[in-house]
From TrEMBL:
<feature type="region of interest" description="Interaction with substrate tRNA">
    <location>
        <begin position="40"/>
        <end position="43"/>
    </location>
</feature>
<comment type="subunit">
    <text>Monomer.</text>
</comment>
<dbReference type="InterPro" id="IPR039657">
    <property type="entry name" value="Dimethylallyltransferase"/>
</dbReference>
<dbReference type="InterPro" id="IPR018022">
    <property type="entry name" value="IPT"/>
</dbReference>
<feature type="region of interest" description="Interaction with substrate tRNA">
    <location>
        <begin position="164"/>
        <end position="168"/>
    </location>
</feature>
<keyword id="KW-0460">Magnesium</keyword>
<keyword id="KW-0067">ATP-binding</keyword>
<feature type="site" description="Interaction with substrate tRNA">
    <location>
        <position position="106"/>
    </location>
</feature>
<dbReference type="InterPro" id="IPR027417">
    <property type="entry name" value="P-loop_NTPase"/>
</dbReference>
<keyword id="KW-0808">Transferase</keyword>
<feature type="binding site">
    <location>
        <begin position="17"/>
        <end position="22"/>
    </location>
    <ligand>
        <name>substrate</name>
    </ligand>
</feature>
<dbReference type="InterPro" id="IPR008144">
    <property type="entry name" value="Guanylate_kin-like_dom"/>
</dbReference>
<keyword id="KW-0819">tRNA processing</keyword>
<comment type="function">
    <text>Catalyzes the transfer of a dimethylallyl group onto the adenine at position 37 in tRNAs that read codons beginning with uridine, leading to the formation of N6-(dimethylallyl)adenosine (i(6)A).</text>
</comment>
<feature type="site" description="Interaction with substrate tRNA">
    <location>
        <position position="128"/>
    </location>
</feature>
<comment type="similarity">
    <text>Belongs to the IPP transferase family.</text>
</comment>
<dbReference type="GO" id="GO:0005524">
    <property type="term" value="F:ATP binding"/>
</dbReference>
Length: 307
């Protein structure tokens, strides 16, 4: 590690969905005798498990995890909330270990901890409620059109399949009269720990095969029943997401079951592509192919740590 006076290290494991991040994180945590912070924006929610590919009970027993089943779907939990709480958890881990691991496919949440978020002025909650109502009634398209006109810079960068972030951008403009892009300085906050970034990726065809297989496994494990069990929460942002939205459409009768399954696979592949686009912008990430045992990654980390 560089001689910067920092003696604690956060190891970040990033990559697209279905790539094997959880397995690697657990192997590395066991090797380093440390704990894991999950930075998956859907695994926070205790009401949904199958469609979010949470670690199994056996995996959770193999290494201590934070931010798994930590919140309810009905709780508003922002990226800023995660940044604050994750840094507090990290301080606790570092009080007893020299290393910690953070794993996930949500690039914004990983960046919140490693780089920090820009401070934004408060917005009008009534405007948020009005935009959420518009989204429920007319879908995402009118939100996208208005955001593109109001703040084209933010619109070009934001995940255009994420209703919460699209609404947030338009909400900010309507509340303040200013573009949220003007406040996004991308200035990196100094953290009191070193950071090692590991990325996992595969040949696209192999990755897509993994994704399709995972969707089949989720359905075999009871994803449809899980979706039926959270129907009363369907208007919450946590459920406006791949795997749930398509099966709600099936239950509504607007899609056949086969079409819904095909759409889940297609949308998951698109999601993986967007994840990779995000992560490839980070030049600090060292890329590996997933493998077990994770000897190459462990060797790389040990070398940096001076073990």
């Amino acid at each position: 590690m560089p001689d910067n006076g920092k003696n604690k290290t956060l190891i970040v494991i990033a990559g697209p969905t279905a790539i094997g991040k959880t397995a690697l994180a657990i192997e590395l945590a066991r090797h380093l005798s440390t704990e894991i912070i999950s930075a998956d924006s859907r695994q926070f929610f205790r009401e949904i498990s199958i469609g979010t590919a949470k670690p199994s009970p056996e995996e959770l027993a193999a290494a201590k995890h934070y931010f798994i089943d930590s919140h309810s779907i009905t709780t508003f939990f922002s990226t800023g909330d995660f940044e604050k709480q994750a840094l507090e958890v990290l301080a606790g881990i570092f009080a007893k270990n020299n290393t910690a691991i953070m794993v996930g496919g949500s690039g914004l949440y990983l960046d919140a901890v490693t780089k920090g978020l820009d401070e934004l002025p408060d917005t009008d909650m009534q405007i948020r409620e009005e935009l959420n109502a518009l989204f429920r009634i007319e879908g995402l398209e009118p939100i996208k059109e208005r955001l593109a006109a109001a703040d084209p810079e933010y619109y070009a960068k934001v995940d255009q399949f994420n209703p919460q972030r699209m609404i947030r951008g338009l909400e900010f403009f309507l509340s303040t009269g200013k573009k949220v892009s003007a406040f996004l300085t991308n200035s990196k906050k100094e953290r009191p720990f070193n950071i090692i970034k590991i990325g996992l990726n595969l040949d696209r065809d192999l990755l897509y095969q993994r994704i399709n297989h995972r969707v089949d496994l989720m359905l075999a494990e009871g994803l449809l029943d899980e979706v039926k069990g959270v129907t009363q929460y369907r208007d919450y942002n946590a459920l406006k997401t791949v795997g749930y939205a398509e099966l709600f459409d099936y239950l509504d009768g607007t899609l056949t079951y086969e079409a819904a399954v095909d759409k889940i696979k297609q949308n998951t592949r698109r999601f993986a592509k967007r994840q990779l686009t995000w992560f490839r912008r980070d030049k600090d990430i060292q890329w590996f192919e997933p493998q077990s045992p994770a000897t190459a990654v462990i060797r790389y980390v040990d070398q940096i740590l001076g073990k």
